[in-house]
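Its record is quoted verbatim for completeness.
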Amino acid sequence: MQGSSYLVVLLLLSGSLAGCTSSVTEPETTLGCTYPDALNFNESAVTDDGSCEYPELQEEIQGCTYEGATNYDEAATVDDGSCEYPPDPVPGCTNPSALNFNATADTDDGFCRYIHPHVLMVLLDGWR
């Protein structure tokens, strides 16, 4: 190997030496409340930031929760089965001077019957 020479070239590439600059960008993360049942849930939030707000637990108030009941309780949160309902209407003739007057009727059904004046005269004449 006499007379032979070796050339060793060591290349160091460096971004700054080569004029290149690079930066690694982290994906953008949206902070917010990620719990769906929270009042301030943010569906675009990727990372939970601990800001979730939850509804206050309400005290259970038992009562009638059906608005159509006579004893409806607006403050009640749990129905306790105590609802009372108005009685069903009783349809019938509500005019006391009608032949088919119904004293228990509370809703006039429009079918009251009366004696026609001419019929009354005939009946009265027949009694003489």
The chain has a mean pLDDT of 82. The longest strand covers residues 31-32. The radius of gyration is 46 Å. Helices lie at 117-126.
